[in-house]
Amino acid sequence: MRSTHMPTAPRRRRRSALAATGLVAALTLTATACGGSVEQAASDKADAAASQAADGIGDGKIQIPTDIADKLKEHGIDVDKWTSGGWKDWDKDKWLSEAKDFVNPVIEGLWKPDRMQSAKEANKTVTTQDASADQGLSDPEPAPVQATAEKTPYHDNAAPVGKVFFDSPDGPAVCSGTVIKDVNHPGKSNLVWTAGHCVHAGGNGGWYRNIVFVPAYNDLGKSAAQLSNANTTEIAPYGNWWADWVSTSNEWIQGGSETGGAGAAYDYSVLHVKPEQGSKSLEETVGAALDVDFSAPSATEAGTMGAWGYPAAPPYNGLRMFKCLDQPGRFSLSTTLPTMYRIGCTMTGGSSGGGWFRVVDGETKLVSNTSIGPEDNTWLAGPQLGAGAESVYQYMSKTYGGR
């Protein structure tokens, strides 16, 4: 590993610090530019809360859309039993895996503050052997960059960022995600970007269940002690947003593994979400969304990148948002796979799926997401987002964006 005391390290830290100012400023501006003033965004939040009674189901029973109910029935799954706990059956024969088989009916009240806090990090760790497999295509390992805590309230400083919760065979799990713009439905996006391994187990598994996005999770960055008796508003100020459809790459579905595997270079996903209660779009409610940069710039052309997320594995506990900024290098797991971006960063599991951003012509855009990292948590790697990623995005926007 390259030492932080090497002569080049101070210059790299200086570049990152200088770039950080512009990147954070642009991200902050995005938080207000898309949704008007912060006060207006707060008003939207109040409106969303006020509309819960009006939009709630009269008999208290969750109404599952007909297409989802029909899909469950096709696989021999009883809808009522599913929402009453049947989803906990992870029998291999009932674990839906194919892209067309995703189902995620809303189970209102499932993701309460204590259950969110119990969720374990969804970590994709590569071994030392994996990381050195194709060093001929990889740049030297970057010096670690210490993650820094994002300023609170998060809505004022990194409004598009949040947490993705889901259930796996091992129990509740958590990743990070980003609200992204929907080019076909401007100003009213319900799209979230995260990692493929946060929604699907890859080649040896299927779709995870009860997938929910929580924007500006723990908005004020309160400690575990302060949240010991937290109410829903404290932990999820803009509500829970259930994924009614999710799309990831076929390469991840077929080749993803517990250490990334052949699917790591394609480890991305787009969620279309809807509020557990309320009717406004995610972008309107949060007041922010980011464009996605599908130009797949080379590591040398990309400039400084910043990774945001909620690391949950020690020494972090998943309650606070952190960020790292660094010049990316190339990382490759195989000569047959596209190279990935790699930056120095000490964020751990739980930051998976969190967006990587860069400034393009003064505008902050999502350019990658956290996918894999080493056992000693000194760097992160994320996929380049090119034509394949854009096709996943366009499919979600055109097919589900208008809902």
Considering the chains and any ligands shown, give keywords for the structure:
403 residues, 6-stranded antiparallel beta barrel, alpha+beta, Peptidase_S1_PA, Thrombin, subunit H, Peptidase_S1_PA_chymotrypsin, disordered N terminus
Describe this structure in words.
The chain is of the alpha+beta class. It has one domain: Thrombin, subunit H, CATH 2.40.10.120. Helix content is 26%, strand content 23%. It contains 13 helices and 20 strands. The strands form five sheets. The protein has a six-stranded antiparallel barrel. Strands 3-14-13-17-18-12 form a six-stranded mixed sheet, covered by helices on one side. A hairpin with a 2-residue loop joins strand 9 and strand 10. The longest helix has 26 residues. The chain is globular. The N terminus is likely disordered. This is Secreted protein. Keywords: Signal.
Please specify the SSE layout and strand pairing.
Blueprint lengths: L7 H26 L4 H13 L1 H4 L10 H9 L4 H5 L29 H6 L1 E2 L3 E2 L1 H4 L16 E2 L4 H4 L3 E8 L2 E10 L10 E4 L14 E7 L16 H4 L5 E8 L1 H6 E2 L2 E2 L7 E7 L6 H5 L4 E2 L6 H4 L2 E5 L12 E5 L2 E3 L8 E5 L10 E6 L2 E7 L3 E2 L4 E4 L4 H14 L3
Parallel strand pairs: 1-5, 2-19, 12-18
Antiparallel strand pairs: 3-14, 4-5, 4-7, 5-6, 6-11, 7-8, 8-11, 9-10, 13-14, 13-17, 15-16, 16-20, 17-18
With strands numbered from the N-terminus, the spatial order across the biggest sheet is 4-5-6-11-8-7
Which residues sit in consecutive blocks of at least 5 with pLDDT less than 50? 1-21, 29-62
Taking the alpha carbons of the first and last residues, their distance comes to: 48 Å
CATH fold-level label: Thrombin, subunit H
Taking Cα atoms only, what radius of gyration do you get, to the nearest Å?
A: 20 Å
- Counted up, domains total 1
- Residue share in helices? 25-40%
Outline: globular
CATH architecture call = Beta Barrel
Beta fraction: 15-25%
The number of strands is 20
- What is the residue-averaged pLDDT? 83
Number of helices: 13
At the first level of CATH, the class is Mainly Beta
> Major beta sheet, specifics?
6 strands, antiparallel, barrel
Structural class: alpha+beta
Organism: Streptomyces caeruleatus
Region (Disordered): 115-147
Keywords: Signal
InterPro entries: Glutamyl_endopeptidase (IPR050966), Peptidase_S1_PA (IPR009003), Peptidase_S1_PA_chymotrypsin (IPR043504)
